[in-house]
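Note to self: keep these together.
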Amino acid sequence: MLTRMGGEVDGQDIAYLVPSGSGAKYIGNKATFWTKGREARGDWAGKPFKCREL
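Structure:
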């Protein structure tokens, strides 16, 4: 379950683990999320985002 809070798009989406070349990738109806090492990237309802460990 992915939850997005704040900004223009709030909501929840159930995402499923799918094959990835490296790292982990999850795809739902509204969201795509993948991680590799210390970084994570995603797309929620057409709005891309990225995160990294500090």
